[in-house]
Design brief:
Strand content: under 5%
Shape: elongated
Number of strands: 0
Number of helices: 4
Structural class: mainly alpha
Helix content: over 70%
Number of domains: 1
Radius of gyration: 22 Å
């Protein structure tokens, strides 16, 4: 249990460092590109879009990066566990694999719907920010 705790701690620290570094690199690249752009291009950009990119989009990139890194570790562990299960109990492994495939088939429409809702929410937030930045006295 101590070894497992050490490995999990090292994994979490490494994932956090990779996530923060990656997100900071993206934020810096966006800032550099905005600073280097010609004024006529910058003036045509919607202020709300820049605000959204530097705020909400960066947070979403951070979350996605975290999920991607953690899922990569989980997939590797799952793959090794599947191989081990097939070696120890092939019939049980086939049964479990069937249950997982049925579960995935059931969840697929929900995942598609969740993605559509996420896209809608992102567009609604962008529209809200755009409307707020165009309010005048």
């Amino acid at each position: 249990m101590i070894a497992r705790a050490i490995i999990i701690t090292l994994r979490d620290v490494t994932v956090a460092e990779l996530e923060v570094g990656f997100v900071q690199q993206i934020r810096s690249r966006i800032t550099r590109q905005l600073a280097a752009a010609r004024w006529d291009i910058i003036s045509r950009l919607r202020h709300s879009r820049i605000t959204h990119v530097m705020g909400t989009d960066i947070v979403q990139i951070s979350s996605a990066t975290n999920i991607l890194l953690r899922d990569t570790v989980v997939i590797i562990l799952l793959g090794s566990q599947i191989v081990l299960t097939f070696l120890l109990a092939p019939l049980l492994a086939i049964f479990v694999l069937g249950v997982v495939l049925v579960g995935a088939a059931i969840l697929l429409p929900m995942v598609k719907r969740a993605r559509a809702i996420g896209v809608f929410q992102t567009n609604a937030n962008l529209s809200l920010i755009d409307n707020m930045t165009h309010l005048g006295p």
